[in-house]
Design brief:
mainly alpha, DNA polymerase, domain 1, Outer Surface Protein A, domain 3, two-stranded antiparallel sheet, 8 helices, 5 strands, elongated
Length: 213
Amino acid sequence: MKIYNELLYNNVESFLLACFPVLRQTLGARKWTRMVRVFFAMHRSHTPYFRQIPDEFVQFLQNEWSPPDDYPPWLTALAHYEWIELVLSVSNRSSDRAFDPTGDLMAGRPLVNPVLANLRYDWPVHRIAPRRKLVPAETFLLVYRDADDTVRFDEINAFTARLVALLEDGTRTGQAALETLASESRHPDPQRLLDAGRVLLDDLRARGAILGT
């Protein structure tokens, strides 16, 4: 039974190690093993696919596990950050609408990359590393798969995160989204915000976060 116990545990852990290398490095072997064994013993997975074991692990961390006091407070955020790369790398989502890659992003309705996650964390998760001290900080990240099938991670600000959120349902023109932002923020110079927003939209298209109109 001990042999089978180790074989099964090692099999599950191998899939987690492939998805969460930074989490493993920052926790250290003892804390990592303790956490994974609790997951292995307690969590009831709802999928037979090995590739989805990291999905189940993130659900376990978010909904079932109460970490001991000696675990870092950013643990769940870092796990989610590492997991999202796997989600986007294997996603088969694609745009089901015809679009113009060179369309006017202000007059037209920008088409946000369907393989994209607009994320907010309470910690700078992209800077977590072994023996690095962190302080809580609101962090916005745009994660998306570009035309070369590379998953990109871009740190953005709250303004950009809100703009992308307004555009994601595909119902607003770039101009309308920026006008909403100007109204929400009570910007003293709306035209200046619109001009800056036009440049930002072009930059998002150049990166691959926006596909066109």
